[in-house]
Amino acid sequence: MAEQKPKGGVTKTAKARLELLWTVLPKIPSVIRVVLLHVLKMSEPSRYLDLRENVIVAFLRSLLDQPKPQPISKTQRMTLRDPGIKGRIWVSKVSAQVPPEESIRDVLLAAIDSSKGQFVVADGICRVPDIIPVEAEWTGYRAHASPSSELPAIPEQQKYAEMMKECSSDVTILYFHGGAYYLMDPASHRPTTKRLAKMTGGRVYSVRYRLAPQDPFPSALLDAFVSYMTLLYPPPGAVHAAVDASKIVFSGDSAGGNLSLALLQTILEIRRRGLKVTWFGHEREVPLPAAVAANSPWLDIVQSMPSWMTNQKMRSGLPNHHGNTFFIDDDFLLHPLACLHLNASWEGAPPIYVCCGWECLADEDKWFVSKLVKDGVAVVFEEYEAMPHVFAAILEKAPQSARCFDGWAKFISQACGSPQEIRSSFTTIKAKTMKEVDINVKNLSPFTEEDLRKFAFDRVGRKSSFPNTPAKL
């Protein structure tokens, strides 16, 4: 059906194209400069990236470095547009019913309170979000469609049933999209979730969690928790059957990686305290998932570690918000369920996959991996030489991206199939040769736990109340 043109104006599609044009035009001189420096081999990225990759990264960085900051609402609105669903993909849009009890929120708030330690301002009070129905997209690979195929005009439940006919494994990925906690949507991440579904033979439950600044911490974490319980214990009217925790992997990129790990740490804290959730009239356990697979996870919310300055040339995805205070109240900026690298322990966690490039958050990711090893957690770490933030999603045709998706998907499949065979490994993938080189995990991060606390407290302008002696967090 043709799009109707409003009475004295242009269509929404035309308006969107004009906005995009006015965004792109001012960037042309900087793109030309990047091309010239690349051809003359006068820029550092030209040593590692091909011309196409270099231009894409530079263009995305220029969008983030606006000389005149755009209103958050405008930027957010542009990233929430649904481009439509075409091609080899099944999408079934659902909205899970929430329980009549408030237990899930009470348990979450209890975990937040018991894990805050000395990281939260003494009289800081956590916001209490509403419990709301959480929308999500069941995503699967549609093998026999063409690139231009549209979804059939059938009910969402039937779309889900058709998707399930094409699943060849029992892998279920609980996916949280990136976007610095205030941008993006499951719709923007369909290429990623479709690819993971295809490579694992499973399905993806991609969550439309609440965004800041409208709904700051812990709204997104509550939505993630509700979504996990929805998979485990389907509410009335759900299209899916109960999913065993051993077949669920939390996954996400950037802020979504933060959210997947925050949900894991929340569950660890709930289990430490022996808490249960009353869910639709039944007292339910909160089991651990099979694993967590995080792509360039953003752990240091206040952006305090050195690589936030030293790796600016490879920044492509995260704006520098100097604390991102619209995501979380100032008193809670350093809470370990937001700044995940400040957590005391990950002991008892299931296997975890982490990948990153040479990006602003490389220091925090490497520190996190070394912490997991100390806490006895099986961890697979892949570092991609010279690659920018979440490169696998933005450089879709790069060989490094294919290798990244391969490692990411294989880990997920193994976690749901033979988790006992997962062995910790630490690897660098070279940029041009794709050669894989083992990393000595003992040399992965030069920082101590005391260094981390000092970086974080200095960043937010607070004095640490911890003793000035090395100690476990």
TrEMBL record:
<feature type="domain" description="Alpha/beta hydrolase fold-3">
    <location>
        <begin position="173"/>
        <end position="392"/>
    </location>
</feature>
<dbReference type="Pfam" id="PF07859">
    <property type="entry name" value="Abhydrolase_3"/>
</dbReference>
<keyword id="KW-0378">Hydrolase</keyword>
<comment type="similarity">
    <text>Belongs to the 'GDXG' lipolytic enzyme family.</text>
</comment>
<dbReference type="InterPro" id="IPR013094">
    <property type="entry name" value="AB_hydrolase_3"/>
</dbReference>
<dbReference type="InterPro" id="IPR029058">
    <property type="entry name" value="AB_hydrolase_fold"/>
</dbReference>
<protein>
    <submittedName>
        <fullName>Esterase</fullName>
    </submittedName>
</protein>
<dbReference type="InterPro" id="IPR050300">
    <property type="entry name" value="GDXG_lipolytic_enzyme"/>
</dbReference>
<dbReference type="InterPro" id="IPR002168">
    <property type="entry name" value="Lipase_GDXG_HIS_AS"/>
</dbReference>
